[in-house]
UniProtKB/TrEMBL annotation:
<dbReference type="InterPro" id="IPR010930">
    <property type="entry name" value="Flg_bb/hook_C_dom"/>
</dbReference>
<keyword id="KW-0282">Flagellum</keyword>
<keyword id="KW-0966">Cell projection</keyword>
<feature type="domain" description="Flagellar hook protein FlgE/F/G-like D1">
    <location>
        <begin position="113"/>
        <end position="173"/>
    </location>
</feature>
<dbReference type="GO" id="GO:0009425">
    <property type="term" value="C:bacterial-type flagellum basal body"/>
</dbReference>
<dbReference type="InterPro" id="IPR020013">
    <property type="entry name" value="Flagellar_FlgE/F/G"/>
</dbReference>
<keyword id="KW-0975">Bacterial flagellum</keyword>
<dbReference type="Pfam" id="PF00460">
    <property type="entry name" value="Flg_bb_rod"/>
</dbReference>
<comment type="similarity">
    <text>Belongs to the flagella basal body rod proteins family.</text>
</comment>
<dbReference type="GO" id="GO:0071978">
    <property type="term" value="P:bacterial-type flagellum-dependent swarming motility"/>
</dbReference>
<feature type="domain" description="Flagellar basal-body/hook protein C-terminal">
    <location>
        <begin position="217"/>
        <end position="260"/>
    </location>
</feature>
<dbReference type="InterPro" id="IPR037925">
    <property type="entry name" value="FlgE/F/G-like"/>
</dbReference>
<dbReference type="InterPro" id="IPR019776">
    <property type="entry name" value="Flagellar_basal_body_rod_CS"/>
</dbReference>
<dbReference type="InterPro" id="IPR001444">
    <property type="entry name" value="Flag_bb_rod_N"/>
</dbReference>
<dbReference type="InterPro" id="IPR053967">
    <property type="entry name" value="LlgE_F_G-like_D1"/>
</dbReference>
<feature type="domain" description="Flagellar basal body rod protein N-terminal">
    <location>
        <begin position="5"/>
        <end position="35"/>
    </location>
</feature>
<dbReference type="Pfam" id="PF22692">
    <property type="entry name" value="LlgE_F_G_D1"/>
</dbReference>
Amino acid sequence: MLRGFYTAASGMLSQQRTQEALANNIANMNTIGYKADQTTLRAFPELLLQQSGSQNIPTKNGLNLPVQHTIGSINTGVYVQETIPNFSQGDLKETGLTSDLAIVQGGLPDETGALFFTVQNEAGEPRYTRNGNLTVDGQGFLTTNQGHYVLDQAGNPIQTNGMEFTISPEGLLQTPEQTVQLGIAYVANANDLVKEGNDLFNGEAGAVPPGATYSVKQGFLEQSNVDALQTMTDMMTSYRLFETNQRVLKAYDESMGKAVSEIGRIG
């Protein structure tokens, strides 16, 4: 019976964490370039039960041999193993602004691969984002709205000296003074990336491999890929599962109460 308490409680905790991830997705429905989180549930390791005892051998001195009988395996519930962003392409919205950019992925060599803009965080380290809502700061550098420098292919901040620049579908940024290649980074397994604040991802990335196709669209923004209807449905399903585990926990509690009060009184 005590194992039932743990199983029901673990189910409630896992659904609570699933609800938190879904609620965060709903809250970021209008966040540019946001990638919806998905939770994965996993069962705790199974335990193998064995019965230990002894067998009396009818001999002159009375011999007892230890014996074990396998009863079977049991499971002690589930837990949220990890939260993985969904890197599917979001819808594009036309803004007409020169500094708004969106990456449109084409064919990639890896099913789990994804492309990102490369930016620089406060510590000067490279980070990756799909939020192309950019601006030009007071010193003429191309930055995100949070003030992170957008990097070129060589890992340097991009100087535009104003809003007079164009970007080709290949990611070439052209100003009257120069032409530079945007730092488009490729991650073979985007699931290895770690989410940070301000729509940034941390992890290992490299150059776009041969054969990969994409285009950079100027004057467009990639919207969040949160499916509102599906997310609300998932929230209702998770809430019902939470309630089910709650009722199971209550039933175990009532049974335990009867065992303590009624059975103990009869004895």
